[in-house]
Amino acid sequence: MRLFAISDLHLDYGPNLEWLERLPLHEYNDDVLILAGDLSDRLALLEAGFKAVAQRFSVVLYVPGNHDLWVTREGMRDSFEKWQAVCDAATGYGIRMDVYRHHDLAIVPLLGWYDYSFGIASDWLKGAWADYRACRWPAGYDEVSITRFFTERNPDASTPALQGAQQIITFSHFLPRIDLMPARIPERHRRVYPVLGTSTLEHQLRTLRSRMHVYGHSHVNRRVTLDGVTYVNNAFGYPSEAHFAARELLQVYGDGA
Question: Which residues of 111-135 are buried (b: 16+ CB within 10 A; e: fewer)?
Answer without folding.
Answer: bbbbbebbbebeeebeeebebeebb
